[in-house]
Amino acid sequence: MAFDLQEQEQIDELKAFWAQWGKWISAAVLAAALGYAGTKGWAYFQQLQAEKASVVYDEVAGAAQAGDLAKLKRSIAVLQSEYGRTAYASRAALLAAKAAFDKQDLALAKSQLSWAVEHAKEPALQAVARLRLAAVLLDEKRYDAAIAELNQEHASAFDALFLDLKGDVYAAKGDSKAARDQYKSALAKLVGDSPNRQYIQTKLDALGG
After folding, report:
1. Are the beta carbons of 136 and 106 closer than 8 angstroms?
2. How far apart are alpha carbons 199 and 43 in whole angstroms?
3. Alpha carbons 36 and 159: distance in angstroms, whole number
4. Using one digit for the tens of pLDDT, what is the confidence trace for 136-167?
């Protein structure tokens, strides 16, 4: 009988506990379940978007290889408007910019590089896009715009490349002292026997560095 009374007391305590906290526990369990379902659903959506984006990316790559700028523009517009959050979009922008540059369509090249600079989620892709954009501005002899682009924040792993290109811009601008300073800074950033070291040193020597 004592055992039965003890068991009944435990049941009564459990009922009282549930009466006080049950709705909060249920709400917490429901929230966790909904959160899990939402996370799984979002992951599935992202996977689906990536799969669709890869198909359009292949279209961009094919158009870029063929030099078909009309088809490239159509495909890249779809990719950036519908799948702009995917990694494929930024990579496709770099491909499109290269194809456009080869065809001397500098306006298209710059627009794609600017898009990649603004939308790329990966710092390395963003840095590459910014470097290429500055190089196009250098080709257009827009030296101040190129320097302004190279002065923007970027991944530190690209410091030497940014400084090297700055040196090229200043050299083209006729500012030899500034060019030498940039080349020297670029050399200081290089690690070990970097393949760029001799190339930059040659440019520095040509300026009397």
Report:
1. yes
2. 46
3. 42
4. 999 999 999 999 999 999 999 999 999 999 99
